[in-house]
Design brief:
The protein has 247 residues and is α/β, with parallel strands linked by helices. It has helices at 15-24, 37-49, 72-78, 101-118, 130-137, 155-161, 177-185, 215-226, 230-245; strands at residues 2-6, 29-34, 53-57, 84-93, 122-127, 144-146, 164-167, 191-193.
Length: 247
């Protein structure tokens, strides 16, 4: 089993212990996420130190209004690392007010161009920005992973364009029926699961910190929503991640 999106640099406790608990739960691979240059450097270090850990490297939209937005060029060298597998997370966020829409779009476009240049997948953060995110991605012909999917308005474009759709712990919440309905519509070869650790702990651990081991609860909720065997779905998600990220 794989956790396709975790912020290991933001989790409490030694990473080795987090990974040991993940392995005990059957989670043997983790993609850790860089959200700025220093975060990306940490992600690469963790990937180099631990078997089964890979890194997606980007500058998230929350930093689009600051100096970090001018450092996209530094990502190019970092993405040459053998365990760097994607650009991101990157995208648009109209829920928070850390940067203007124009600043966010400039940063997003720069990372779309970088992913195109390097033939790497894009890991997308989109919140309350369905239309704008879909429009920005329309010119990108590579692999797209919609991380922590919670945007019903993006689902038609995702289905039409063959995007990977990744679900996090919030799909387990009692009031998340819309997310479970969306999960049931995603083709078998395009569904992914993640924790977004240390955020969005699944229902059994809700309110506490999340960690890669807990992705098993997300997979179980997805299997129930899709009326599938949980072990078969876990194997399918693992294979999908291998294809999406070239693992």
């Amino acid at each position: 089993m794989i956790d396709t999106h975790a912020h290991l640099d933001g989790c409490d406790g030694p990473v080795g212990e987090l990974l040991a608990r993940a392995h005990a739960a059957g989670v043997t691979r983790v993609i850790t996420i860089g959200t700025g240059i220093e975060s990306c450097l940490t992600a690469l270090r963790l990937a180099a130190e631990h078997a089964g850990v890979y890194a997606a490297l980007g500058i998230d939209p929350h930093q689009a209004g600051g100096e970090e937005a001018d450092r996209v060029g530094e990502l190019r060298k970092l993405l040459a690392h053998r365990k760097a597998v994607a650009v991101g997370e990157t995208g648009l966020d109209n829920f928070h007010d850390f940067a203007s829409p124009a600043e966010q779009l400039r940063l997003f476009d720069a990372q779309i161009e970088l992913a195109t240049e390097l033939s790497l997948p894009l890991v997308i953060h989109s919140r309350d920005a369905d239309e704008q995110t879909g429009a920005a991605l329309a010119r990108f012909e590579g692999t797209v992973v919609l991380h922590c999917f919670s945007s019903a308005g993006l689902l038609p474009a995702a289905l039409e364009r063959g995007y990977y759709v990744s679900f996090a712990g919030n799909v387990t919440y009692p009031k998340a029926a819309e997310l479970r309905e969306a999960a049931a519509r995603v083709p078998a070869e395009r569904i992914l699961a993640e924790t977004d650790s240390p955020y969005l702990a699944p229902q059994p651990f809700r309110g506490g910190p999340n960690e890669p081991a807990y992705v098993i609860h997300t997979v179980a909720a997805l299997a129930e929503a899709r009326d599938e065997d949980v072990d078969e779905l876990a194997a399918r998600i693992d294979a999908n991640a291998t294809a999406a990220f070239g693992l």
